[in-house]
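re: ur question from earlier - yeah i can do the single chain one, its not a big deal. heres the input i used so u can compare w yours
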Amino acid sequence: MSCWLSSGDLRDRLSVPYSALFPGSGSIISRTSLFPGKMFLVGLTGGIASGKSSVIQVFQQLGCAVIDVDIIARHVVQPGYPAHRRIVEAFGTEVLLENGDINRKVLGDLIFNQPDRRQLLNAITHPEIQKEMMKETFKYFLRGYRYVILDIPLLFETKKLLKYMKHTVVVYCDRDTQLVRLMRRNSLNREEAEARINAQLPLTDKARMARHVLDNSGEWSITKRQVILLHAELERSLEYLPLRLGVLTCLAGIASLLYLLTRYFLLYP
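and the output i got, formated as tokens:
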């Protein structure tokens, strides 16, 4: 069963838990239908203890291409990469561990509550992250994938990568469920768990901005079914075709030009 809401309906009704809107359904809630366009990227996000990692695992089991932007962010600041050198130049050698790696805790402390320094760090790392992200995406594209999922924890907070996303997906659960799961998973008391949840953008806000919402408030089997249905919907879409055909046409043109140039130089040395 699929429940479809207009963006206005979704905005109006998000003041109550999803389980109250659709008791027992746990279905995919999509703000808009699919329209033919170009190859698309799918930005997936959630909140602490919302179940995002479990949802990602299902997509991977279905054979989907998944890029973890956090892994890329850690990769581009390794020794020998341009971002590493620029971070050391900007923040000093005190942000380094003995082995030369960036000390993420020290760097985090330096930019905490200092917007200017945080913006400086973002200006260093974001272009490198985007380049690596596009490289990985292009690899999947050449292998024939129709869409690529980018696992981006701060998709709506930073908004840096939103412009690249054709679809956005939020793994949602109601706050009470999120609180209970976090307390159990991390062995926290209620106050500690609430502090961690409050430090993030509320899931209800993320859900208002997302094109698709996967409700993980109930049984896991229901959530898993939602993931399967969304994957099937994205696989059926033809949004990837125009760009793929354009790229293949371009590659064919380049290959033809190289062939003609090779023949010319062989015939007229």
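Residues 1-37 have pLDDT under 50 and may be disordered. not sure if urs matches, ping me
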